[in-house]
Amino acid sequence: MADSKKDSELLMSRFVATTLRCVLRHFETAWLFTRSDFKTIIFPVMIFATVVSPRHNPLVLSCAFCWLWFHTFQFNASNQSYTANEDALNKPWRPVPSGRISLKDSRALRWGLVVFCLGFSSLFSLNVVITSGVYTVFVVMHDDFHLSHHPIFKNLCNVGGYVTCELGCSLILSRESSLDGTSMKALSCSALVILLTVHAQDFADVNGDRRSGRRTLPIAAPEGSRIYMLCALPLSSFALASFWSLGPISNILFVSMGSWVGIRYFLFHDEICDQSNYRLYSIWLMGVHFLPANVHFRALAW
Question: Which pTM does this prediction carry?
Answer without folding.
Answer: 0.90
